[in-house]
Amino acid sequence: MEHKVVDHLFRHHYGKMVAILTRFFGLSYIETIEDAVQDTFIKAASQWRTKIPDNPEGWLNRVAKNRTIDILRSIQAEKNRNLSITTGASSLQIDELFLDHEVADSQLRMIFVACHPSLHPSEQIAFALKTISGFSIKEIAAALLTKEETIAKRLLRARKTIQDKNIQFQYPSPETVQERMARVMEVIYLTFNEGFHSTNKEKLIKEDLCGEAIRLCQLLLKKEQFRSGSLYALFALLCFHMSRLESKVSSDNQIVNLQFQDRTKWYFPLIKMGNSAMLKATEYEDTSVYHYEAAIASEHLNAKTFKDTHWKNISYWYEQLYMFKPNMFTLLNHATVCLQLSDFEKTHQLLKRIDVAELGQRAYLYYGCYAEYYMKIGKRQLAISFLDKALAGTTNRLERDYLTWKRRTLLN
């Protein structure tokens, strides 16, 4: 039980604690701060085995602050300097930074630091996922479809650039806000996706990550200078997807295909919130991939049953999305839609256009779609062979169980 509490608090508070301590101690100590916060959660996992403190968040904040001070004092001692900030005005000042409005402000500043133009785009995303959302290097590698050692190098370069360029813990100038926002939204989108379709071996959905992405989106929307049609569309998309979480996995922990999901479990207050955000998005002139993806998600939610789904509308939106921003996943999703329309020729054409290497760790979805295609046109052996390829590339246990079940039905 205590590990669940620690894991939950880690997802919700790691980024907050790093942001607050960075605001106080400075970006030059970011790596030390991250280590201190990490140490704090390790200590919590050990000490909370017998009893969880009455105020877990307060305990974490206090221990992280003291751990950071201890580490920095050691560093300064080696340089023959004094670091005395454990008591008095400085201590009071850092405690005040843990107030709710200061936490929000600190996290927003950290988001924009992560997306600073001095950092390479690939470094921006990796640094943001690590610092703001507390992703492990393994999780970042999975989310960005790349190797763990590559991510480690990106994080190292990002921290070095922050120090070398003396990047400040502050908001961007008004004329650069929207440019930086594009990267910010991508980070939020990736955070949500890792929660909605997790690469974790045992757990398909990580609700904490989905909730964290929505929370960051809401933080930005509270500030008028950060609002745009794209940000509202992204928020709508996240709300639409989040509304279906409960129906994605059955009570016996099995994946439930969209066709068989219990639509009464869909959370309609979130759908309503998403619809409202989409209306707000139309008040702005900008357009983004989030507009198209939200339109697609809305089509699914508007259908009373799977049979009532307007697949032609969804196919149209995928065509528009690919024209707006070509992407292998868009082609794959469009192929899946064409299967529902029984347009097998177009399905095959779309699948042939896909460079499977660009799908990275999600390549098994491509093989799964091919298996479905061959199953639909009556080529059972080919369907089984592609299911085998999908199974070979799947790490998540729930998805393996689902694909194994599909394979078994073909053999019977």
From TrEMBL:
<feature type="domain" description="DUF6596">
    <location>
        <begin position="180"/>
        <end position="281"/>
    </location>
</feature>
<dbReference type="InterPro" id="IPR007627">
    <property type="entry name" value="RNA_pol_sigma70_r2"/>
</dbReference>
<dbReference type="InterPro" id="IPR014284">
    <property type="entry name" value="RNA_pol_sigma-70_dom"/>
</dbReference>
<dbReference type="InterPro" id="IPR036388">
    <property type="entry name" value="WH-like_DNA-bd_sf"/>
</dbReference>
<dbReference type="Pfam" id="PF08281">
    <property type="entry name" value="Sigma70_r4_2"/>
</dbReference>
<dbReference type="InterPro" id="IPR046531">
    <property type="entry name" value="DUF6596"/>
</dbReference>
<feature type="domain" description="RNA polymerase sigma-70 region 2">
    <location>
        <begin position="9"/>
        <end position="74"/>
    </location>
</feature>
<protein>
    <submittedName>
        <fullName>Sigma-70 family RNA polymerase sigma factor</fullName>
    </submittedName>
</protein>
<dbReference type="Pfam" id="PF20239">
    <property type="entry name" value="DUF6596"/>
</dbReference>
<feature type="domain" description="RNA polymerase sigma factor 70 region 4 type 2">
    <location>
        <begin position="110"/>
        <end position="161"/>
    </location>
</feature>
<dbReference type="Pfam" id="PF04542">
    <property type="entry name" value="Sigma70_r2"/>
</dbReference>
<dbReference type="InterPro" id="IPR013324">
    <property type="entry name" value="RNA_pol_sigma_r3/r4-like"/>
</dbReference>
<dbReference type="InterPro" id="IPR013325">
    <property type="entry name" value="RNA_pol_sigma_r2"/>
</dbReference>
<dbReference type="InterPro" id="IPR013249">
    <property type="entry name" value="RNA_pol_sigma70_r4_t2"/>
</dbReference>
